[in-house]
Amino acid sequence: MNEEYDAIVLGTGLKECIISGLLSVDKKKVLHVDRNNYYGGESASLSLVQLYERFRGGAAAPEKLGPSRDYNVDMVPKFMMANGKLVRVLLHTDVVKYLEFKAVDGSYVLQKGKVHKVPANDAEALTSPLMGLFEKRRARNFFLYVQDYEESEPKTHKGLDLRRMTMTELYKHYDLSEDTQDFVGHALALHRDDAYLTQPALPTVLRIKLYHESLFRYEGLKSPYLYPRYGLGELPQAFARLSAVYGGTYMLNQPGVEVLYENGMAVGIKNGDDVARAKLVVGDPSYFPGKTRVVSKVVRAIAIMSHPIPNTDNAHSVQIILPQKQTGRKSDMYVFCCSYAHNVAGKDKWLAFVSTTMETANPEAELAPGLALLGPVDEKFVEVREVCEPLEDGSKDACYISKGYDATTHFETTVEDVLDMYRRITGRELDLTAKELSQVENA
């Protein structure tokens, strides 16, 4: 291992594997090391045996759940927007050729104690109970404005300056009710709380536009989301494969690895007597004690079920967002569901996940509104994870540290962190405009 590298990457979480792949494509000499003997780090997908090792001390899983190898249970479950940044990164790097996707069956939102499908087309919008008849007309005018809006074409702005106008003011301009604002802001713009209401409207309008573009990226989509067969653990492995194709070196099962510092700068890693030197070190927070802070905690429940989530039209895959106002919380709650149809569970089994940012000392009780939507469960596992972020940007100490994974069930915040790390490491933006999105086939 006594060699010189352009970059050393620690941990095989999705963020680290994307960075490793991107740097390798840039012709950088990359060494990628993980203390674990499997890919994925915190964002791994586990077999049934691994799941019971983690949560039940290695107890045997009930036979009724089926073979362990049929399960790929995501530890950080997330869907990807069909027109979102992660899909663009997959295209930019050609990693898309290693993966197979399925469209997600539906996106839902909780309103006044009931689960409603977020309309995916005009016909659904007309019949949706989310809004009354007159509200639908007002909302239609708002959505037409958002869809037509182009930053570079002032005539599409219709006299509104979205850089100065707050989102509350824009909602008021279109006379949208609080209930409509709630599902637009949380189920379409995917904000995690209501802080966005007092901020400039432009970022929220662009988020709603992304939702709409993702929904219409492929014909007949019932939601704007895609999900890979065999679970999200496929993603880090695909980027690891990409890095290897471009000359990256991988070493798993290295429990003693630690960062090597000289005069406060990261200059490589050591593993026992072995040393590898590099211009910079990238990694997840667990490899950099003292250089990160805990910003929140996420509580997540994993449920194995023998049925789809009730009131979701027997869907094999759904996202349900519970906006903060609907549950009396400070932040949103997320329900994620996938099934044997995605090769992530035993035959006729569904996996459901409920996650939120912890607000009390009784995390499982906080999940009650989401768990109540699931119906009977065969097995349930609950975990609390700290979400850490770096104290510095890496310019002073050559340590480029990723943020932890939040409670959201979509990848937008994850990829924003990756693109920010790439910019800090290389000094330039990653160009994601080069390739055509139609290359991503969905089943």
From TrEMBL:
Superkingdom of this protein's organism: Eukaryota
Pfam families registered for this protein in UniProt: GDI
GO cellular component, one term: cytoplasm
InterPro entries, per database record: FAD/NAD-bd_sf, GDP_dissociation_inhibitor, RabGDI
SUPFAM superfamilies the record matches: FAD-linked reductases, C-terminal domain, FAD/NAD(P)-binding domain
GO biological processes: protein transport; small GTPase-mediated signal transduction; vesicle-mediated transport
Database matches in PANTHER family: RAB GDP DISSOCIATION INHIBITOR, RAB GDP-DISSOCIATION INHIBITOR
UniProt family annotation: Belongs to the Rab GDI family.
Name this protein carries in UniProt: Guanosine nucleotide diphosphate dissociation inhibitor
Gene: PLEST002911
